[in-house]
Write a structure and sequence with these properties.
6 helices, 71% helix, 0% strand, PAP2/HPO_sf, transmembrane, transmembrane helix
Length: 174
């Protein structure tokens, strides 16, 4: 998308030594477009796909901790996006309008991709995960698990306890 837009719009870079930067065309900023695509997807994922951990009873402290880390991730992503966009104009690789257009396209495409993944790809994950090639590569479907970190933590603790009991039993029998 970015390459097509750059060639069709034909805007040159604001710097004088254009050979040093690769392509002469700079509209829209590829770095800003990708950064805001990723940041938009990340923010939508954190806001709408990450669910609170289902461990009852939930204390106010745990709820505020979950809300706090989500806010921290979103804030960090926004700061990173602004830093990328600002740096492109500050270093004279792009003009402000080139950065703004790249950022806008990234936001739109990130939103569209989030909707495509949620509407079409996630429902297909169970089917795809059952393919032989996916089973051979140990690709699994975890879309129905609300908190994958808590799930993995619990399963690993169970497995460790089971192995520890087996180890103790085998040591006693020897």
């Amino acid at each position: 998308m970015n390459m097509v837009l750059k060639r069709s719009l034909g805007h040159l870079r604001p710097c004088t030594n254009r050979k040093h930067y690769g392509s002469n065309y700079a509209m829209p900023s590829n770095h800003s477009q990708f950064a805001w695509f990723f940041i938009t997807y990340l923010i939508l994922f954190v806001l709408f796909r990450l669910r609170p951990s289902p461990v009852p009873p939930k204390s106010r402290w745990m709820e505020s901790l979950e809300t706090g880390w989500k806010a921290l991730v979103i804030f960090g992503a926004l700061v990173a996006g602004c830093a990328v966009s600002f740096s492109r104009a500050y270093l004279h690789y792009h003009s402000s309008s080139q950065v703004l257009l790249g950022s806008s396209i990234g936001i739109v495409l990130g939103t569209v991709w989030y909707l495509i993944v949620g509407s079409y790809l996630i429902p297909l994950f169970p089917v795809i995960a059952s393919w032989r090639v996916c089973e051979a590569l140990l690709i699994r479907d975890t879309t129905l698990i609300p908190n994958i970190f808590l799930f993995e933590y619990s399963k690993i603790r169970e497995e460790n306890s089971l192995r520890l009991r087996k180890l103790r039993t085998s040591n006693r029998s020897q």
